[in-house]
Design a protein that fits this description.
single chain; mainly alpha; Four Helix Bundle (Hemerythrin (Met), subunit A); 6 helices; 82% helix
Length: 146
């Protein structure tokens, strides 16, 4: 009887090992399935466009709303892919998306306010920084060098 239990336990352990994937494989799969690389590029381009729009005091409020709205839609799409298989990367990306979302919302409200335009740009910079840190962490989780 004891022998059967040991054989069964070993078989179960062997079977479980066959079906498991590494954390690096999980991170690589998430990166691909979430389209993280293209999402990151889109967000950085959107943030750059919004920052330029915020710097242009002659830009109409409607044009500013459009640029900020595009950024917000893309941030929400990227945020919907969270969490990643790596908690540290998830935390950094969540901070990035929250800051970019705050930047987009502040940008939308900024109108001609110099203070709000500056605050929106600061949020966007913080978001871009955390996005870069999150991308580095994902590379590490994937087993690649930063």
């Amino acid at each position: 009887m004891t022998r059967r239990v040991v054989v069964f336990a070993l078989a179960a352990l062997l079977l479980a090992a066959c079906g498991s994937i590494s954390n690096a494989q999980k991170a690589a799969a998430w990166i691909q399935q979430s389209s993280f690389t293209s999402s990151k590029a889109t967000l950085l381009k959107d943030a750059t466009n919004a920052s330029s729009a915020l710097s242009n005091v002659r830009l109409s409020t409607n044009s500013l709303h459009t640029v900020c709205g595009v950024l917000l839609v893309d941030v929400e799409a990227a945020n919907s892919a969270l969490p990643t298989p790596d908690q540290q990367a998830s935390s950094l990306l969540s901070k990035a998306y929250n800051a970019m979302g705050d930047g987009a919302n502040t940008c939308y409200k900024a109108g001609t306010s110099t203070a709000l335009r500056s605050r929106a740009k600061a949020y966007l910079q913080l978001g871009a920084t955390n996005l870069a840190l999150g991308a580095v962490r994902l590379r590490v989780a994937e087993g690649k060098s930063p």
